[in-house]
Automatic annotation (TrEMBL):
Component of the Mediator complex. GO terms for cellular component: core mediator complex; mediator complex. Its main location: nucleus. This is Mediator of RNA polymerase II transcription subunit 14. It comes from Cyberlindnera jadinii (strain ATCC 18201 / CBS 1600 / BCRC 20928 / JCM 3617 / NBRC 0987 / NRRL Y-1542).
Length: 825
């Protein structure tokens, strides 16, 4: 038999066992090279076949070649490495696998040892019981428990005595407790127990003797019967074992408060109008009421404990702490009281609860607003009140009142001829003009109305926010952009069927005031009221002998609403009488004009009449100063007499003469003279030239008789020619004159002394007869035989000058001599 030394020597010379060669999950290098070669060939074939054009093919092929070169380089490195180190590397893999296997075996041995240790616990011998061994040695038998199988005979006296002794021990022991809470000072000691009474609960404790700790026997809550917690007495005894009555109080107080909160939780489960969250670990219940109300959804009641471990109720209105309550008897009644207080406080914050004779109220169970005696429109408006922030309640109510009021206004507008326009979209910049740059209120709603009789582009604008504001303005669209011009606020106190007519008149007059003001641009005027304007005549139409101002008043024509009646009222300082213009005894005159509302120019006709009146007043004043007799005075014409002749001066200084007026012979020349020289010179001309014109008319009439009295073609004929208002010719002509027109006797009016006229009379024939030529000098009979009544007669080298006294004499003599000398008839 080999010895131990032999076995050790044999062990030293023996070879270690071969390691198991690992082939799992190891891929030969040849397979890798083969598969990658196949992959490279497939990718090259795919690239060469599938690319659509040469550029893409070249780029794709280049990218693939770069990638394959990188991979082949790696395989090359791996191949070279395998030639030198692959054998050793395989050994490392086998060794690593063997070491992991050994590690697994050691772990299994450890867990098996632990399991064996646990399974042999029951086979372990107990410690020696020396006490029992002494009893057996001394008494011959051990003292074993009877487990109530052996009845003990104890007398009642013994029991009572034992209880009395135990009561004394408990009294002394309880009195010596150092940290006894004040709540545990109400107690009784009887029947070997200490009965402790508090406000919320009572419990019983006892002890075996003076050296053992207290232990709890029973515990009861004073506010209801509950199944006792399984671990409560055990936890309390752990506190009593170390005489920690403070911890006992804390445990019992927490348990009591938890049970109270649980009772409240159970009662809240029965209520359908609230939702609550019970958190026992936090000793807190959060009650959310009015959960269906968006406005007051953050209202809640938090039930929890204060610092003294007493239940308190904290009331939060809209997230803000409102009040704290400490004593609540019935949670359902308390919640109803909260509902009432909250709804009352809400309504008290609203300035006015009445909307269109309907009273706003709040449902105390749901927290939702409602109206008493509502209308369908009010029910639709409730949605806004029940979803918007409560701080906006007064503005929202005012907006509802405004909406209802505007609804009433819209119904009135629709039946009283107002035309809505929904196409107008004024930008905010234009709307700011309605506030005159002072109040930039965000508008909520804007509505535009017009009337068919109004001027184009004028609108009544309703801006509806917390109240209704009314404006008028001229609104135009320029290149797609709406613009507002001439905005003006209109104060409308009421808008109903009864007052609609007054509103139309008021707004129409506002528009008229603006239109007239635009026409009065450049003049001095003052708007007295909504239907009257005072204008200074100096800057408007200057009227001679009149007051410095005129009053413009306007109103809607009661017979035709499409027309505006404009009345201009003024006063003349000097009274005149006109046939077609009324001036009363005080000099007050009025001009009434009925104008289509849509007409662009309102004052055109009135200004024209005023201009005519100014000219007529000036003309009449001029005529009266010259003592001319006024036959008829009208705005567009003045008929007057100069001498025995009548003349009519019409508008624009158009002169007209009756047929019997001798000045008709030169009427066209007089009109031209009027234009160039003015009225003053024309009147002077008409009065001073009357003798000449009468004579020329007589000669003209006689020429018509003489020219047809003989049929001799060589007879000297004549006619009167008016070359202009101051130059006339008596044209003589006959067939024997070459050229046929003959010659002329010319009469030219010249200004003489003392604002009088003199007349230059000449004959323009070159081969004038010697006798006729002599008559034009002082040697002729014309000058020698003049009558004594002729005041002024002056011969010149080429004619003769005379005044009115000698005009007829000179013309008659010269005309007779011409006819005698040159007439062959």
């Amino acid at each position: 038999m080999p010895t131990r030394e032999d076995m050790d020597v044999q062990t030293k010379h023996s070879e270690p066992p071969e390691l198991q060669h690992i082939t799992t999950n190891i891929v030969p290098l040849s397979s890798i090279l083969d598969k990658f070669a196949q992959f490279a060939y497939a990718e090259l074939s795919h690239v060469l076949k599938m690319q659509p054009n040469d550029d893409d093919k070249k780029k794709k092929l280049l990218d693939l070649l770069v990638y394959l070169r990188t991979q082949f380089t790696r395989l090359y490195v791996l191949t070279n490495w395998s030639h030198a180190s692959a054998h050793d590397f395989n050994k490392f893999i086998d060794l690593l696998a063997w070491l992991r296997e050994q590690s697994s075996h050691f772990g299994n041995l450890i867990w098996s040892t632990k399991s064996l240790n646990q399974s042999l616990l029951s086979a372990k011998l107990p410690n020696p019981d020396l006490i029992t061994a002494m009893e057996v040695l001394s008494n011959g038998r051990p003292t074993l428990p009877t487990h109530n199988f052996i009845e003990t005979r104890i007398s009642p006296q013994k029991v009572l005595q034992t209880l009395r002794d135990l009561n004394v021990v408990l009294s002394m022991k309880y009195a010596l407790v150092d940290d006894l809470p004040e709540e545990f000072t109400d107690y009784d000691i009887k029947d070997g127990r200490i009965y402790v009474y508090t406000k919320d609960y009572q419990f019983q404790i006892s002890a075996l003797d003076e050296s053992t700790p207290f232990f709890m026997i029973d515990f009861e809550l004073s506010f209801g019967k509950f199944e006792k917690a399984k671990n409560l007495i055990r936890v309390c005894n752990e506190a009593l074992r170390s005489f920690q009555f403070v911890n006992l109080k804390r445990i019992l107080t927490n348990y009591t408060m938890a049970m109270k909160l649980y009772l409240i939780h159970q009662k809240l489960n029965e209520l359908k109008t609230v939702k609550h969250t019970y958190s026992p670990e936090k000793f807190q219940i959060t009650v959310h009421y009015w959960v269906n109300s968006f406005v007051f959804k953050y209202s809640r009641l938090e039930i929890g404990l204060n610092k003294n471990n007493e239940i308190i109720y904290r009331w939060f209105k809209q997230g803000q702490l409102a009040q704290t309550f400490e004593q609540v008897d019935h949670i359902d009644m308390f919640l109803r009281d909260i509902y009432h207080k909250h709804s009352t406080s809400i309504l008290s914050q609203i300035e006015d609860l009445m909307v269109n004779k309907s009273l706003l109220q709040i449902n105390e169970l749901t927290g939702i607003f409602y109206f008493k005696n509502p209308t369908p429109a009010l029910n639709m408006a409730l949605k806004k009140l029940n979803v918007d922030d409560f701080k906006n309640i007064n503005e929202n109510l005012q907006a509802i009142r405004t909406d209802l009021k505007f609804t009433e206004i819209s119904s009135v507008l629709s039946v009283t001829g107002w035309i809505p326009n929904d196409l107008i979209k004024l930008p905010q910049v234009e709307l700011s003009k309605l506030y005159n740059g002072v109040r930039q209120e965000p508008h909520r709603l804007v509505r535009f109305y017009t009337r068919k009789e109004w001027a184009q582009n004028w609108f009544l604008i309703f801006v509806i926010d917390t109240k209704i504001r009314t404006f008028i303005g001229n609104i135009r669209s320029v290149l797609g952009q709406w613009t507002l011009n001439a905005p003006s606020e209109v104060c409308i106190n009421s808008f109903d069927y009864k007052s609609s007519k007054d509103v139309i008149n008021q707004v129409s007059k506002k528009i008229m005031t603006h239109l007239i003001s635009q026409e009065l641009t450049g003049t001095n005027y003052h708007v007295v009221s909504h239907d009257s304007i005072v204008v200074e005549t100096e800057s408007f139409v200057k009227i001679p002998n009149a007051s410095k101002v005129v009053m413009l008043m306007f109103r809607i024509d009661p017979t035709n609403k499409n027309n505006i009646v404009v009345n201009l009222k003024g006063k003349l300082n000097k009274i005149i009488t006109l046939d077609d213009f009324i001036v009363d005894s005080n000099g007050v005159f009025q001009i009434f004009e009925t104008i289509d509302f849509k007409r662009a120019n309102i004052l055109t006709n009135i200004m024209s009449k005023l201009t005519k009146l100014a000219k007529v007043i000036e003309l009449v004043d001029y005529l009266q100063k010259r003592d001319m007799e006024l036959v008829s005075v009208q705005l567009d014409q003045v008929v007057f007499k100069y001498g025995d002749n009548v003349c009519t001066l019409k508008e624009n200084f158009d002169l007209e003469l009756p047929k019997e007026n001798p000045h008709n012979i030169c009427l066209s020349s007089i009109r031209r003279f009027l234009v160039t020289n003015g009225v003053d010179d024309v009147f002077k001309y008409l009065m001073k030239s009357n003798v000449l014109i009468s004579k020329l008319n007589d000669m003209s009439n006689q020429a018509q008789v003489d020219n047809v009295s003989s049929w001799n073609v060589d007879k000297l004929r004549y006619e009167i020619i008016s070359k202009n208002a101051t130059y006339f010719s008596v044209l003589y002509y006959s067939n024997k004159f070459k050229p046929r027109h003959g010659f002329s006797m010319n009469i030219e009016i010249k200004n003489g002394a003392l604002d009088s006229f003199v007349y230059l009379i000449s004959i323009d024939k070159e081969d004038l007869d010697a006798n006729l030529k002599r008559e034009l000098t002082s040697q002729g009979n014309l000058f020698k035989n003049r009558a004594s009544t002729i005041k002024y007669l002056v011969p010149l080298s080429d004619g003769i000058v005379c005044d009115d006294s000698g005009l007829n004499y000179v013309l008659d003599q010269l005309h007779s001599m011409v006819l005698d000398i040159y007439n062959v008839g």
